[in-house]
Design goal:
mainly alpha; 0% strand
């Protein structure tokens, strides 16, 4: 019985309260919603999201197919390590993954590649997060 109460409280905090806030804000009228959605920054964010998502889907379609092909068809030393690396984004909390990517590809990264806070960083982060799904 206590578990059901905890689940209900958790879902209320995580799902119902944010939905209630959205509904509450939407009662200001359709015009305020359209103004927010058509704001130049919102339009730019939506375009960026769509373009990067399409690019990630294309890369994942090609690379994911190749990775799956190799993992299913071939036996090689280190196959279990490759499988574990692919599942790594499932094990890492989002903040740890973000800090790791920033440490690797940020201004003081070991590879000399600085893409922090750029479109390329968004692409890399999405590729990392979606890797287990391909």
């Amino acid at each position: 019985m206590i578990t059901q109460g905890l689940v209900t409280a958790y879902l209320t905090l995580i799902v119902l309260l944010p939905l209630a806030a959205v509904v509450w804000q939407s009662t200001k009228g359709e015009r305020s919603f359209w103004d927010a959605v058509s704001d130049p920054q919102a339009v730019s964010a939506l375009k960026l999201t769509l373009v990067v998502s399409v690019l990630v889907a294309l890369v994942n379609a090609v690379v994911g197919t190749l990775i799956a092909w190799v993992l299913v068809r071939d036996e090689f030393p280190g196959k279990s390590v490759v499988n574990a690396v692919i599942d790594l984004p499932f094990a890492l909390p989002t903040i740890v993954a973000g800090l790791t990517l920033l440490a690797l590809y940020g201004p003081e990264g070991p590879f000399g590649i600085d893409v922090a806070f750029s479109r390329a960083a968004i692409l890399l982060a999405l590729l990392f997060v979606t890797l287990p799904f391909v």
